[in-house]
């Protein structure tokens, strides 16, 4: 469309150029003639024609040129008006075309947003659009956060206090980095007073403590350099490298893949049955969906089952879904405040947190 407008502009300039050149010549030729008067005495009959007589044809030509210049000026004015109208029409066509191109995406976004319910809070910047929703089910409640990333700096994952073995609450990580929102990420293991991220962990495109092949239902989930959600079980570093991971963490189990709910290993169906949960999922347009489900404690009597989480992912139209660290780790921070109710009664220091930046 832009190329069409440029071709039109070049054609117009070529068409107008001869008129412009002629007008300049005419204006340059519009000069007055003056000469001293010569007395020819008695030989007036032999005198050459007067200057006025000589200039008469020239003045006639100039009058004719002035008329032509006037006509050219009028023609140029019409061409200019035509150009302005055509340019406006082309701009309107481009605007309409752009709107038509974006229409399917807008329709899709409207459809998945309607499934989530009413937006309770939101933030829109040049980096991202984040929308917060309440989840109210018969046996649990919580929040859903839908995020559309618009730039590479919109989302990241950080280690606790940016240190391998360090830990900090999701709220502390949000405040330290100036993030607009945060969600707890992967699992962790404690050793000698340190809190280490579980299994394969990638930060800023680098493996924090090397690659570890998937075992016991562990998976890796994160984002690649195209802001796409990537995840699953990986048997080799080369297999994961092909997806260009930018950041990510590990936990268990995978809940949904390619729009199909996966069978949940029996171990994770009862360990515990119900619990606070955190889940990361995606849509076919690469928007992200986070579910943070509350529970009173981790004794298995409150919160959601993994099967119930799968039902939510199906209802919300998610494509892939991965279970993140839950229990007292489940935390959602939005606009500088903790919006859910962590089951520990206080915030738990974590090894990794997903953060969002405006």
Automatic annotation (TrEMBL):
Pfam families: NAGPA. InterPro entries: NAGPA. It comes from Cohnella thailandensis. The chain crosses the membrane at residues 12-33. Residues 178-357 form the Phosphodiester glycosidase domain. It comes from the Bacteria. The lineage of its organism: Bacteria, Bacillati, Bacillota, Bacilli, Bacillales. GO terms for molecular function: hydrolase activity, acting on glycosyl bonds. This is Phosphodiester glycosidase family protein. Keywords: Glycosidase, Hydrolase, Membrane, Transmembrane, Transmembrane helix.
């Amino acid at each position: 469309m832009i190329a069409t407008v440029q071709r039109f502009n070049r054609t117009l300039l070529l068409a107008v150029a001869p008129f412009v050149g002629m007008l300049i010549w005419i204006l340059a030729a519009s000069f007055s003639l003056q000469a001293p008067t010569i007395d020819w005495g008695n030989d007036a009959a032999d005198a050459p024609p007067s200057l006025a007589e000589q200039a008469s044809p020239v003045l006639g030509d100039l009058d004719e040129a002035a008329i032509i210049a006037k006509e050219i000026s009028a023609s140029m004015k019409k061409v200019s008006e035509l150009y302005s109208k055509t340019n406006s029409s082309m701009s309107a066509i481009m605007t309409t075309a752009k709107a038509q191109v974006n229409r399917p995406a807008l329709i899709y976004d409207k459809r998945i947003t309607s499934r989530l319910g009413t937006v309770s809070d939101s933030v829109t910047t040049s980096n991202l659009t984040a929308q917060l929703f309440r989840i109210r089910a018969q046996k649990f409640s919580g929040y859903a956060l839908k995020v559309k990333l618009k730039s590479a700096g919109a989302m990241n994952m950080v280690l606790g206090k940016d240190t391998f073995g360090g830990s900090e609450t999701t709220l502390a990580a949000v405040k330290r980095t100036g993030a607009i929102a945060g969600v707890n990420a992967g699992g962790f293991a404690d050793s000698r007073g340190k809190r280490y991220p579980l299994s394969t962990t990638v930060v800023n495109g680098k493996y924090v403590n090397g690659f570890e092949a998937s075992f016991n239902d562990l998976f890796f989930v994160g984002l690649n350099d195209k802001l796409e959600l990537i995840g699953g079980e990986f048997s080799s570093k080369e297999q994961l490298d092909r997806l260009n991971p930018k950041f990510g963490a590990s936990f268990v189990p995978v809940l949904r893949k390619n729009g199909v709910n996966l069978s949940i290993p029996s171990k994770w169906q009862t360990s515990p049955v119900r619990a606070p949960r955190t889940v990361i999922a995606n849509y076919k347009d690469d928007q992200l969906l986070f579910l943070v489900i509350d529970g009173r404690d981790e004794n298995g009597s409150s919160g959601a089952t993994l099967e119930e989480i799968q039902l939510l992912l199906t209802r919300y139209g998610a494509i892939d879904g991965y279970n993140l660290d839950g229990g007292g780790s489940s935390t959602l921070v939005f606009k500088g405040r903790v919006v859910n109710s962590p089951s520990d009664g206080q915030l738990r220091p974590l090894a990794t947190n997903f953060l969002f930046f405006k």
